[in-house]
Automatic annotation (TrEMBL):
Gene3D superfamilies: Winged helix-like DNA-binding domain superfamily/Winged helix DNA-binding domain
Name of one Pfam family that matches: DUF433
Top-level lineage group: Bacteria
Coiled-coil features, chain-numbered ranges: none
Name listed for the protein in its UniProt record: Antitoxin
Length: 67
């Protein structure tokens, strides 16, 4: 699955998050992305079981500005 409107796969985003690359850095690297794109990728991963290794709570907190 790809991020809507891009050729970037959800898996690429999940791998970056797994390797502790910040959401700010991902948004900087992929200027067309928004927090909503990242959140949607995480929701997809959680629903499909692909995100088991990702620290979802940390990432969601970062998106929501709680970290």
């Amino acid at each position: 699955m790809h991020i809507k409107g891009t050729r970037i796969s959800v898996e690429i985003i999940l791998r970056k998050l797994f390797h502790n690359i910040s959401i700010d850095k991902i948004l900087q690297d992929y200027s067309r992305f928004t927090n909503k794109n990242i959140q949607t990728a995480l929701e997809y991963a959680a629903e499909s079981g692909h995100g088991e290794e990702v620290h979802l709570l940390r990432v969601v907190n970062e998106i929501n500005g709680k970290e």
